[in-house]
Every structure is written in structure tokens, then in C-alpha cells.
Amino acid sequence: MPRDRRVLLTVAVYHLSNDGAVQVLAGQIVLLSAVFSFGPFETGVLVSAGLLVNAVCQVLLGILSDRYDPSRFLPIGIVILGVASFLIALCTTFLMLLLVVVLARAGSSFFHPVGLAWIGREFQGAELDRSLGYQSGTGDAGEILGMASGAVLGAAVGWQSPFLVWGVINLGAVVLGLVLTGARRTPPRASTTPSLRELVASLHDVRVWLLPLAVGSVSYNVVSYFGPLLLHARYGLDSLLAGLSIAAWLVVGTVLALSFGVLSRRFGRFALTLAAYPSLGAGCLVVALAPDLAVALAALLTLGAGLFLTYPAIYAFASEQSHAKLQGAAFGFVFFFQLLGGAIGSLAAGTVAAVFPGPPAIQATGPFWLAGTICLATAAYLLVLRSRGTGRPAPAPAAHTPP
Asked: Residue 145 pLDDT more than 90?
């Protein structure tokens, strides 16, 4: 198998195992809230604490990743996440759960700055779009499996079982990844730690994409964690059906992500990004206002799925606009702000749900009002960027062809 295909397949395997293990928590959040006796505010704390640790770690790991071989550096995080998955199954209190989730998030921090920078080294231009769309789709597939397995196994076997399964999957992914890369190491981009001036330059390169990514993170976490709670509180769905409903949203998103390369050539990256945010905002507001379950799910599965086009589009812009030798640092900054936004937004969503006026069925809509409003505001921000010429395609050099 050619080297570029080995790299892409390895990154895809790690992405699937990484995102699947993280998503298990959301897949049975209704069940866990009953087991550990916590409400919407504690849900916000659980999500935001993990994301905050994720954000800080990703900056540090992004800076370090340019100095190390990603084929050996990235598996470290997957191992940590696998071990943490086993430990979650041993938790007996909310505090223990919170601490181990933070550890799991520290392990999951390796993938995005290291894995996506690795892709950025191997592919350019149109092939970069295709490669990022491919690996983004496999990450989404991991989220589907994590969400669905959390809902199904949690209800059928017990809440610990999905965490044990994904612990095994993560350790197996490391073995497979090391076999695929074998002795073919990828040399680091930088031999020394970048200077403060270089780090500031990396941040400057990607600055315009930080707000959209942060808002996307807020929306993703609102749907993933507060969506099942809304479906349970407002429409009476149990943990299994609520989790599977969100898994269906992830399925649609995965199809869109896997189609990103084709869609970007047809419509352009920026046009897709510009269309996605008002679509997502409208979807969240319809979910909040929906008179029945069918309307809420229809809005989520159509308008709400636009979110999944934004990730490969913005990652491709960030990759092209950052210096090749500091792509790890650039992606570290990108994901720091993305996750910081998600952490702040998740805590705000939990707070809004706790103080929103009305009975629990109405309070559960609060996070969706929040997400919908900021998505529409982000659409206006992107319109301003377009008026300034942002998002014009960069020249595409010859590149490898992914599978």
C-alpha cells in the first residue's frame, strides 16, 4: 500500500476510535444522569470541564507535535483514552466520573492537532479537501458508533459495558496503526520549540476561523448532550431512543462529511461554510419551537446536519493558511479556541437549562435557543468575511491521491 494511503488509513482508524470513545458518554447521558443523580447544570459542568482540559492540552500538544514523529506521538493519546475508558466503568460518584472524564479528554486531545497536521503534511489542494473529508467522515462514523453503542449497550447490558468496549477498541486501534505505519516514520517538521513570535504568527494565520469553530463546538455539544435530555424531558423518549435519535443525526452528518470533497469542488468551501451556519441555527430554533417529536427530528436531521460540512472546510482553510513547519501549533490554536468555545457554551447551556422559566420540558429547550441564536450571528460574521475576500481558493500543487 502506498505511503499516503497508509497514513490516511491510520489517521482514519485513530479518528474513529478517538471520537467513538468520547461520544459514549453522550450516548447514555440520560441513563448516567439517573445513575449518578445529576441534572442539566451538572451536565454542563461535566461537558465543559472535559472540553476545557481538552482545549489547554491541545495547544500544548500542537506546539510539541511539530517536534515529534506523529506516527509515534499520536498513539500515546489513544492509549490514555483507552485506559480512561476502563476507569470510567469503575466510577461510583459524580466526582469520580468528572475526574476520569477529564483524564479521557486529556488523552483525546492528541488526535486533532497531531492527526490533522499529519494529514496537512501529506496532502495539498483538492486532495487535502478529499483527505480531510474522508477522515472527518470516519471520525463521524466513530461518533455514531459511540452514541449508538452507549445507548444500546447501556440500556441492554449496563452503563459500564460501552466504556469497556471502547477501551478495547482504542487499544486495538493503536496496534493496527503501528502495524500500518510500521518502520516508516514521518520526520518532524521542526527540530526546536517555536519562538513566541512564530506562535503568534501561527495564531494570526488562522484567526478568522476561530469564532466559527467555537460556535460549531457549542452547537455540537448542545445537540449531543442536551439533545437526549430534551427528547427525554419533552417527548418522553427513554435513554435508548433518545441516544439513537442523536445517532441518526450523526449518520446524516457523516454522509455529508464524506461528500465534502465533491461538494467543495462543486460549490466551494466558503459557500458551504456560509450555508451551514444559518441552516444549523434555524434547525436549533425549530427544535426548540417544535410542537411535536416528528418536526423536531426532521429539523435536526436536515437543517441541523449542516454542522458537519463546517469542520473539513475550516480545517482545510486553516491548513492552507498556516506555515507548513508550524501546522501542529496552528491546529493546536484552532482546537484550543474551538474547545474553549465549546466549554464556555456547554456551561452556559447547562446554566440556561437550569434557570430557563417553565417546567422541565420547556427548560430543556433553553440550550437550543442559545445555540440557534449564536449560529445565526456567526452567519452574519461570515458574510462580513466574504465581503472582504476571505475564503478564496489557494493554488493547488500536485498531491497524492487518497483512496
From this structure: yes
